[in-house]
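Researcher: Let's walk through a ligand-bound prediction step by step. First, I give you the protein sequence. Second, the SMILES string for zinc ion. Third, you return the three-dimensional complex as structure tokens. Ready?
Model: Ready.
Researcher: Here are steps one and two:
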Amino acid sequence: MDSEETMMMKPKQEKEKPSAGDELGLRENPSHTSDWAFRPEAVVWVHGEPVRANLHPVASQLYSWLRRKGDVTYFTEKMKSDPGMYTNPYAFDASTLARVFLDVVNETHAAGESHEDIEPHDMEVVRIRLTGELTLLSARLLEAVLRQMLFCTAFPKKSYENASLGQLMSTECRACKGGDGPAHHISLVASLGCRYGMCRQIDACVVSFLKLLNKQRAQAGAHASTPSIVDRPVAESRKMLAEDCFSLGEGLCHALQHVSEVEEAMILEIERHAADSQRRSLVILPSKSSPASTEMPDPPATS
Ligand SMILES: [Zn+2]
Ligand SMILES: [Zn+2]
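Model: Step three, the predicted complex:
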């Protein structure tokens, strides 16, 4: 059953409900949210002083880059031990994936626009490879961005560290799992947004992006997960590549818009908390201090 069609047939009043795809194993309304708190690891501490939020604005930077408005910063392996550097492992994962992602976007754009002579089958291979890379990277990127945010919260690490995107959107409640009745479902992602009044936007729009990712995978081949090389003119392969990647980029951009709003709100709240805790010496305490100066290293910007 085509989920888009069923969505269109729904009566109007149901349209606003975040609707999740069955194919993702998500419930129709996965927006059960759970209250959460920040943990001390939400802050980077140096000598017991709060230095910055332990959250790199990857979603915000990539969202700006996709709209040609800014750069994406990333970190080398060596920079990880710099004084005052993030201790959130997902900050590095997410920023590296973002850097790789924009490389593939640029390559895709060049391949789609190129007028170079190429064998039709070779162009099909380029199309399949780049579409696959972008689809996979989009999912991994979003996972890392969301995990980076969850790392700052008191949600148990087990609930997100190996979770797929679908599971981050809807997972069985740990508290009532193993009880008599069926466990209810919680969306970790919606829970992040809920604190800032953005649970519906983030839930519904990230879910619709997931649907697009799934559709892209489904389009690749009727049954197989590997797409086929089709006899078609080079120009047609190029057009398909450009169109598929455009709709993917559009979907990712929309999902990132909401995620970046939550990311920004979290960073602001962490910074406010950290400043307060310094003044009052409570609320958020450092778990450990690292031997370092308070000097902030600047990550390199892409040119
Ligand atoms: Zn429960
Ligand atoms: Zn939206």
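Researcher: And what stands out?
Model: The radius of gyration is 21 Å. Residues 39-280 form one domain.
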